[in-house]
Write a structure and sequence with these properties.
The chain has 111 residues and is mostly beta strands. Helices cover 0% and strands 56% of the residues.
C-alpha cells in the first residue's frame, strides 16, 4: 500500500516485511529513506551522494557512478544519445582490465 505526502510523492510503501518511509525537501528532492523492518536501515541522499547509514555507498557523476565496495570504488560509465538517454553502461573488470557491458538499450523508431 502506498501513501503520498502533500507534494504527491510516495511517503510510505508498505509490503509484507518492508515498511520504507521517505522524506523530501520542499522542492521534491528525496532526502532520506528509512526502513523500520529488520534489519533497520537508513539511506541519506545529498547532492548525488547516497549514504547507507553513515557510509558513502554510491556517488553519481556526469559520466556514471562510483560504487563503494568495502572502501574501494568501482566505476560504472554511461554512454548517452543526443537526448541524454543512457544507451550503454559498462565498467572495467577489476583483474583483467577488459571492459564489461552492464546494460545496453537499443531504440528502434518503428517498433
Amino acid at each position: 500500500m502506498l501513501t503520498y505526502n502533500l507534494l504527491n510523492l510516495p511517503a510510505t510503501a508498505t509490503k509484507t516485511g518492508l515498511v520504507p518511509t521517505y522524506t523530501y525537501d520542499a522542492s521534491g528532492n528525496k532526502l532520506r529513506k528509512v526502513n523500520t523492518a529488520a534489519p533497520a536501515t537508513t539511506r541519506h541522499y545529498v547532492d548525488g551522494i547516497e549514504y547507507n547509514g553513515n557510509t558513502i555507498d554510491v556517488i553519481q557523476t556526469e559520466e556514471g557512478l562510483a560504487r563503494n565496495n568495502s572502501g574501494t570504488y568501482s566505476y560504472e560509465y554511461n554512454l548517452t544519445d543526443h537526448l541524454g538517454n543512457v544507451r550503454y553502461s559498462f565498467n572495467k573488470h577489476p583483474t583483467t582490465g577488459a571492459l564489461q557491458r552492464i546494460q545496453a538499450d537499443n531504440y528502434y523508431a518503428f517498433g
